[in-house]
Write a structure and sequence with these properties.
Elements (H helix, E strand, L loop, with lengths): L1 E11 L2 E11 L2 H16 L6 E9 L7 H8 L1
Antiparallel strand pairs: 1-2, 1-3
């Protein structure tokens, strides 16, 4: 598995919220799908209200989320 850091914004009502989230996935497409489904279920945001600005693969020593680090390093 690889680790990805996804950053972007999503609209909640009149407000625009920035986010940065780390996920453990096999590829970028899977990371995008995971982020869109996670934000949709947690914040009731539609996919068209989410804008992804960057999807970067990160090294295991750069991971700050302990769950993602465990999934990547095993």
């Amino acid at each position: 598995m690889k680790a990805f850091r996804v950053t972007g914004t999503f609209r909640m009502g009149r407000m625009v919220q920035n986010f940065s989230k780390e996920v453990a996935c096999e590829n970028k497409e899977e990371a995008i799908e995971l982020i869109l489904s996670d934000l949709g279920s947690r914040h009731k945001v539609k996919r068209y209200d989410i804008t992804l600005t960057s999807i970067d693969e990160i090294k295991p020593d750069e991971i700050s989320d302990s769950v993602v680090a465990f999934k990547v390093t095993g």
